[in-house]
Amino acid sequence: QKPKLSDDNNDADNDNNLLLPSSPLPVPRIGCCAAIIHRLLIVVGGSSKLSWKHALKRVDVYSFDQQEWIDDNTFPSTTSKRAFCAAASTAAVVASDSSQLGQLI
Prior knowledge:
There is one protein chain. The chain is of the alpha+beta class. The chain has one domain. It contains five helices and three strands. The chain has helices at about 5-20, 35-45, 50-55, 80-85, 100-105; strands spanning about 60-65, 70, 90-95. The chain has a three-stranded antiparallel sheet with strand order 2-1-3. A hairpin with a 4-residue loop joins β1 and β2. The longest helix is centred in the first third of the chain and has 13 residues, at about 5-20. The radius of gyration is 23 Å and the shape is elongated.
């Protein structure tokens, strides 16, 4: 009599699968790190005194969820823009020249 595949064996296989990570940990895109962009803008601007307020005025926000640039009018203030950039895991903050998007990611 041929051995029959039992449900127990299938369960064991499933248990082994549970030991593997279901998906790799999400890696934040380089654009998400406003601090990096801040430093980049300091270098580009040639001024070590460039503040967050001035830096954020010179950046655009690209949403990978919406696959589009976020209109600056969306942010009522620089503070809200900074908060969005800090909180959004799928948003990239890039230098105001949109051609740099490909270079940053």
